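Render this sequence as a predicted structure.
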Amino acid sequence: MISQVPPPLTSVLSSLNRRLGWVLVGLSLLLHVFTVYCFSRQPDRFAAFTVVPIWIWGGGGLLLAGAAFYFLRAPLSLIMTAVWSITLFVGADEARVLGNLGKPTPLPGLAAKHQGSPVIRVVTLNCAFFKKGNPAPDIENWQPDIVLLQDIDPQQVRHIADVLFSGRGDYRFHLSNGIVTRWKINREIRNPSQRDEQVSIVHPSGASIEVVNVHLRTAATDLRLWEKEAWVKHRDNRVVRQQELATTLRILAQTTPRFPNTPTLFGGDFNAPATDIIHRQLAPDFENAFSSAGKGWGNTFQRRFPILRIDHIYATRHFTAVRSCAVTTRNSDHRMVVADLLLR
């Protein structure tokens, strides 16, 4: 009887390596399919997955593909690396500003004219109730025309208005939100049930500009994705924000003559990243200023290591965004968004 000779150890290890490589390629592919589905379709039940930037999941996918190449040494792992790279370039919000490379960057001080025409400088900032300090000097440094403030009390709104305009400006406050402007406010509409406010501002040209300042429901922060409760929290949290924004837009349409054919600015703290489905509610009538003209790293939260762009400035087609950026201030846990807009 002839005994069977066991395969050499190197042969066994080589076979295991190939199998492990295929497993890693398969996992990278499955993660890619799930990521693309979640970020493109944005189902509410998977809101916990899309609350973090796509490049975090892409990093995991690239790591799996890289490990597969190390073990497998096969072209398929390189193909997955290329697929992930293209997906991140197309899907990551941070990559979209690459199309704005030729556009100018806003500078502190009085906003420069654009092709000889004056622009409107708009700023939005979550002030954290001055717990991190007084942001008024940081805002003043940019000499804005309109300021949208969140997490602030009435005295703080008045203080910022006095610092910016020395008593010659105008301001309004409602439920921890504030709007400050160098021009006259001739109408205010309040929604008593949520943190948003709407005012009409008289521009020096005589045009009336509607300005809406929102602070949507605070985001869910539970990232224990291995627990069902975390997924439920994120789903319910997103649904509430969608309802709040829908209510704000409905009030705007009901109270503004000829909207959306009225110059309108819409901004604030959305507590939702730029890729979240909630922004699609604004897409028919508004354009995001930073997406159109932003330069640099546009993420606004958390200030020290901002990975999410949750503070936004939108404008109707009556405006052209010519410059925009996110500015660090030590006096808030958010970064400040600055946008220069040309009123057509």
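Summary. The mean pLDDT is 93. The chain has two domains: 9-91, 99-343.
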